[in-house]
Amino acid sequence: MTALDKQRRKKLQAVVDKDYSYRSYYDDDIEVKSTGRCGFGVYAARQFQPGELVFEVTGQLINKKHYEGSEYVMDLDEDWYLEPSTPGAFMNHSCSPNCELVQLTEFSLGVVAICNIEAETEISFDYAWEAFDWNPKCQCGARNCRGWVVSEDEVKKMKRLAKGRKKKPR
Ligand SMILES: [Zn+2]
């Protein structure tokens, strides 16, 4: 067996996506589909009212003591992270989100609408990440976009970090 080069990996991943649908999801409420700008996203398949449960996020539970989750890991409670599976894993950040996360059960989070959501709208929440050197630039397109995927009160710190990042030779 040979290691997969980048191009072949991409080609084979497309086969996995098409034939095995790990990354696809559709029901009467929501749908995972391509955003056309940054990979996949979760979209409303119908209208949601403020306060309405949009869907339940389940996945792998990871003990915070030996953390090895991805960047999409979510806070479940004091001791546990939730590594969301499809469709939750495909929810994008927005600086002007239409949903927020609440703890629903011992093992799951709920995505709850915080405003009226029309069908076909992308479902988003505020990742509210801490500022680190690696935070990506935000592409949410909101009028009040913070510029980076970072929480509101970390914007100042992020601007400082980003300045330093530019100066550093790579
Ligand atoms: Zn933004």
Automatic annotation (TrEMBL):
Q: Supply the Pfam families for this chain.
A: SET (PF00856)
User: Where would you say this protein principally sits, based on its record?
Assistant: cytoplasm
Spell out the GO cellular component terms annotated for this protein, sorted alphabetically and separated by semicolons.
Answer: chromosome
Localization annotation: Chromosome
GO MF terms, alphabetically ordered:
methyltransferase activity
Q: Name one GO biological process term.
A: methylation
Please state every residue range assigned to the domain named Post-SET: 134-150
Q: Does the keyword Methyltransferase apply?
A: yes
Q: Where is the SET domain?
A: 28-128
SUPFAM superfamilies on file: SET domain (SSF82199)
Q: Which UniProt keywords apply?
A: Chromosome, Methyltransferase, S-adenosyl-L-methionine, Transferase
InterPro entries to which the protein is assigned, alphabetical: Post-SET_dom, SET2_Histone-Lys_MeTrsfase, SET_dom, SET_dom_sf
PANTHER family assigned to the protein according to its UniProt record, in alphabetical order: SET DOMAIN PROTEINS
The protein here is known as SET domain protein
Source organism per entry reads: Rhodopirellula baltica (strain DSM 10527 / NCIMB 13988 / SH1)
